[in-house]
Amino acid sequence: MRLLLDTQLAFWWQTGDRRLDGAARRMIEDSDAPVLVSRVSLWELAIKASLGRLRIDLPVFASQVEAMGFSWLPIENAHILHLASLPVFPDHRDPFDRLLVAQSASEPLVLLTADGTLARYGELVRVV
Asked: What's the pTM?
């Protein structure tokens, strides 16, 4: 099954952050299928950087995604349309996460995330 990294995991992978645990690293490294990073993640990082919530060199991040052997997942109309059918939970309304879940379900892809609140979206979400 193809893997989709959520924004946090893609950022942690690129920065070598220790919060990306061994099990998650092995899943990514051992994947026979493509590992993808969504354009949603680049958009989210750009917004966080512009608000001063994150320090990141966005052009370097963007170029490193492919240099690390990952592929970009574009945002398609089908992903946005699927977003409308996702349940809304009162304690989680993050639009970036919701679009990642919609992409995961539409493709299908296994979404790897460190965010336990996303697990309730179903079996295609793996919390690591």
From this structure: 0.94
